[in-house]
Amino acid sequence: MLINNNYIDELKYSIGGENFKVNEYITVYSPYVYEVRDFGENLYHYVLSLFVRRPYDIAVELYDKDIDYQSVSDWDIFFETATKIPIELSCILFGKLNFTDFVPCLNNENGYKCLVNKHNNKICIDEVIYRKIVTFLRYIHFISEKVEYDVGNSMAKKFLIDRMRRKRNKLTNEFASGKKKSNSNISDMIKYCVNNSNFKYDYHSVMNMKLNLLYESYLFITHNNERDNIMSGIYHGTIDSTKMKDKSILNIIPDLHK
Predict the structure, then answer these.
(1) Which pLDDT tens digit goes with each residue over 44-68?
(2) Which residues pair with 21 in a beta bridge?
(3) Orientation angle between helical segments 41-52 and 185-194, nearest 10 degrees
């Protein structure tokens, strides 16, 4: 179970690959690779973003609506958009739970906003429930809660927003002109892992892995390859380990959730 919204039973939900039962009404599914393949990788990542995105991730869109991304939370963003997510999209992560059946409400006991199912008022999503959902989704997809940059004044914030807008527009234009093509991150991970001697699956059997375990295998293998190179450098005297500021790369079992 999740404890204090920030702890995941790794053996059960990550390595074990179990779906996360939030309560008797809400279950968050941990998909297999073949399920994401059949659903569509790009569409899957889009649906995932609707649940795990931070205000920082859509800072440009919020700015254009005169909303300071630092003045709202990810719960605020989800609360405003959740009821617009059709079941055809959410089903990959939530099965038969239909978010369009929810309506925004205020809790009579504490005055906090929540989403209540109009067909069954026992099915409710408040901020506590949302935190459990998003913690699980971020965990199994190795998504950090941290933002790349955080600014403290309006001038710096305007500069950050302008830079993010230019970067987004540049990427959009490159895709439109054909200079940049969409790559399959999952396919790249599969190719890398399958062609590594430490990976025990082939191109066929890897489809029956839970997606989060593919992520974990890829991150673990890349960490160990980098670690082996650094250890070789230390052994041959080309790297001075006493001058390394961050020695976490030397860990045999890395912390993949940062």
Answers:
(1) 999 999 999 999 899 899 999 999 8
(2) 27
(3) 110
Euclidean distance between CA atoms 157 and 195, whole angstroms: 44
Q: Which two tokens stand for residue 98?
A: 């239909």
Question: Using CA atoms, how far apart are residues 241 and 134, in angstroms rounded to an integer?
Answer: 38
Q: Within 13 Å of residue 234, how many CA atoms lie on the same side as its CB?
A: 14
Q: Which amino acid is at 206?
A: V
Say if CB 193 and CB 206 are below 8 A apart: yes
CA distances 205 to 35, 102, 208, 209, 210, Å, are 13, 39, 6, 7, 11
pTM (2 d.p.)? 0.86
Under DSSP, is residue 1 helix (H, G, I), strand (E, B) or coil? Answer: coil
pLDDT in tens, 105-125: 998 788 899 999 999 999 999
Report in angstroms the alpha-carbon separations of 50 from 41, 130, 147, 233, 242. Answer: 15, 12, 17, 43, 44
Structure tokens at 175: 């895709």
The answer to whether the CB of 190 falls within 8 A of the CB of 202 is no
